[in-house]
Design a protein that fits this description.
The chain is an alpha+beta fold. Helices cover 13% and strands 22% of the residues. It has 2 domains: 1-42, no CATH class; 97-234, Immunoglobulin-like (Sandwich). A 5-stranded mixed beta sheet has the order 1-2-7-12-5, covered by helices on one side. Strands 4-9-10 form a 3-stranded antiparallel beta sheet, with no helix packed on it. The chain has a two-stranded antiparallel ribbon with strand order 3-6. Strand 1 and strand 2 form a beta hairpin. The radius of gyration is 44 Å and the shape is globular.
């Protein structure tokens, strides 16, 4: 045993080499101490490159539920019933005279008291019919018909070949009336406050002429014809 110790001293093994030798030989014949007790290499030593576990980062304020609010939709005026969203970015521009074809029709068994206006998009791009159409009879071009009590809930955006509707109350029983064979229509454009000028439109073969009383009125534009009918037939 002493010869082994002398050999180690002769080669001047460092403490690190001794530790490595002891760990590889455990209690081998040359690994004892002077009194013969076995020397055991240290066990369970962590590697110098081992990473210590860390706790998962706590969520930041922005990631916590309720820390931020979802954007709220913006409201807008629009047709009297269902339609497309009036607050969406990049909404289709307002419809103008060249964008739509206008047709007119009576409701069956209505005695000509109301007329339905149908606007069809004749282009290859969507456009928006805002609020209600400006309707004029005769030579009037300054004071369009007032809207009925219907309230707007969404703008009426129509794609190619799609339709939107508006209804006109012409007269009530017992009113003094006047007959017209055409009417003027204009479209509203709130984006630049530049409403179109009225154009003269001939009635369809179904209508040919209308009898107009003292207080005619019009609904808001709507993509749903049945919604227009609700307002038309309850208006007084």
């Amino acid at each position: 045993m002493r010869a082994a110790r002398t050999s180690w001293k002769t080669y001047a093994l460092g403490a690190a080499a001794v530790a490595a030798l002891l760990s590889s030989t455990a209690c081998g014949p040359t690994g004892g101490t002077e009194d013969g007790a076995a020397t055991q290499a240290p066990s369970g030593t962590a590697s110098a490159t081992a990473s210590t576990p860390t706790e998962a980062p706590s969520p930041t304020e922005s990631a916590k539920p309720g820390a931020t609010e979802s954007p709220k939709p913006t409201g807008s005026s629009s047709g009297s019933g269902s339609g497309s969203d009036g607050g969406s970015k990049g909404k289709a521009p307002a419809c103008a005279d060249p964008d739509v074809s206008v047709d007119t029709s009576y409701w069956p068994h209505d005695s000509g008291q109301h007329v339905l206006i149908t606007a069809t998009n004749v282009t290859d791009k969507a456009c928006t019919l805002y609020f209600y159409p400006f309707i004029y009879f005769g030579q009037e071009t300054e004071n369009p018909l007032s809207p009925m009590e219907s309230q707007p809930t969404a703008v009426a955006t129509i794609g190619p070949k799609q339709k939107a509707y508006a209804g006109v109350k012409l007269f009530l029983g017992g009113e003094k009336t006047k007959t017209y064979e055409s009417f003027g229509i204009a479209y509203q454009d709130p984006s630049n406050n530049n409403d179109s000028a009225p154009i003269d439109v001939a009635f369809s073969q179904d209508v040919q002429f209308v009898t107009v009383g003292q207080k005619p009125s019009v609904t808001f534009w709507n993509l749903d014809r049945s919604e227009v009918e609700k307002f038309v037939f309850k208006a007084r």
